[in-house]
Amino acid sequence: MSTERRTPLDRKRVADTALRLLNEVGLDGLSLRAIAKELDVKAPALYWHFKDKQALLDEMATEMYRRMVADSPVTPEDTWRDRLLKSNRGLRDALLGYRDGARVFSGSRFTGTLHAVEMERTLRLFTEAGFTLAQAVRATSTSYLYTIGFVTEEQGVQPLPDERRAGYDVHERARLMADFPLSAAAGAEIFEDYGRHFEEGLDLVVAGIEARFRTC
Q: How far apart, in whole angstroms, are the C-alpha atoms of residue 49 and residue 52?
């Protein structure tokens, strides 16, 4: 009879394993059964910690957020513009670290209150800069939704930074759309150089927030 002691199964261990497996199989291939096999346990053991797959996705998103905050470059000296730029760049980088990262993150609800700590700091920064609370919420949520939407589309083409799905060759697209020259030429602006396009779009969002709310 083996006397080897196994690492106790807890929520974090399950979430860590699920995030690792996510890069191999993607969200559609991620199942409790596959995670249980990876952990060398029976699937019912996971139900002690998560009532269903969505509960697990919530914990995975929360763990992604924990890691993102740990790597965050934000500082107390940030202006509201600095905070928007840094937090959304950090969010994109974090999501790109996982296959289907944006899909997991956007459809989930955080567990615990860690996100409230960062949210409180950000909202305080904005209100101290002259935003009303409603304006601060609108500014931060709009930039967040821009980033989530951008990365969702980006990962639809490039599931991981070094991987590209078939069917997104811009030259072949241009050939097929030769009768529509502007639309054909737009392919490179839609399906390539995502880093530059993200930065341009984020700058537009920040400029729009400043123009709309006329704050300092």
A: 9
